[in-house]
UniProtKB/TrEMBL annotation:
Designated name of the protein: TlyA family RNA methyltransferase
Annotated RNA-binding S4 domain residues: 4-66
Keyword Transferase: yes
Protein source organism: Faecalicoccus pleomorphus
Pfam assignment, any one: S4
Length: 240
């Protein structure tokens, strides 16, 4: 009998592949009653695959944005939001939970957005879009709030054109120091261990954002990156 990867088998059960990989790594998937934590594990069609997805959020990233907005008591009621690096839609989901009337879910990839969010009339899916080349003509509405979670690129590379072209009133950005430094700073697992280097990166990005916004707050993310990297949530308001 043919075998398939476990994350692919989960896609057949209605999950996006990214979400399936997160669930597997978090120990939420069983094969024949046994927890399997490697997405690449091969399974048979005849195997019993069970998913414990009682969690209401479509990604771990949702908790990072939620923690930031909750701690600062940020209300998104009736606001138009832009989620850059939307992926499965964790940030998008939190924006809707906080009262957003519309969320543009933008990602350079395809077929990642959670099915229920894809079907939500308040969510405008924007697949295959590179935010480095963003234009205000892409959107029907002025953007009130920007949230962003991108990987393998410096967040400043995206923020510069976004701040210039869209002028969001306030924003929340996930800072991932492991993607802001050279590979020589990372250990073999891709983790940036040096707190000094992390702090320097965070201060540099904060200084960059302060050129556009008057008030900037940075907090440690309540949840670490997938490989144990310490990440940070930056919130900014009051455009200059």
């Amino acid at each position: 009998m043919d075998k398939v990867r476990l994350d692919v088998a989960c896609v057949a059960l209605g999950k996006t592949r990214t979400k399936a990989q997160d669930l597997i790594k978090d120990g939420k998937v069983k094969v024949n009653g046994k927890v399997i934590s490697k997405p690449s594990t091969l399974v048979l069609e005849s195997d019993s695959v069970e998913i414990d997805d009682a969690d209401t959020y479509v990604s771990r990233g949702a908790y990072k944005l939620k923690g930031c907005l909750d701690s600062l008591a940020i209300d998104l009621r009736d606001q138009v939001c832009l989620d850059i690096g939307a992926s499965t839609g964790g940030f998008t989901q939190v924006c809707l939970e906080k009262g957003a009337k519309k969320v543009y879910a933008l990602d350079v990839g395809h077929l990642q957005l959670d099915r229920l969010l894809d079907q939500d009339a308040r969510v405008i899916k924007m697949e295959g879009r590179n935010a480095r080349y963003i234009e205000d003509s892409w959107f029907e509405d002025p953007i009130n709030f920007l949230c962003m979670d991108v990987s393998f690129i410096s967040c400043k590379t995206i923020l510069e054109p976004v701040f210039s072209k869209l002028k969001p009133e306030h924003c929340a950005v996930l800072i991932k120091p492991q993607f802001e430094c050279g590979p020589q700073y990372l250990n073999t697992k891709g983790v940036l261990k040096s707190e000094k280097t992390r702090n320097k990166i965070v201060e540099d990005i904060k200084h960059f954002v302060l050129q556009t916004y008057q008030d900037v707050v940075v907090e440690k993310s309540q949840i670490q990156g997938r490989h144990g990297n310490q990440e940070y949530m930056l919130y900014a308001k009051g455009r200059r």
